[in-house]
Amino acid sequence: MVERCLRVMPDDTIPFDYNSADLIAPLVKLGEVKRAHALFDLLADRAQQSLAYYSQHDPALFEREVGVNIITLQHLYQAAADTNDRDRAARVAALAEQYYPRS
Question: What is the pLDDT of residues 53-73, one digit of tens each?
Answer without folding.
Answer: 999 998 789 999 999 999 999
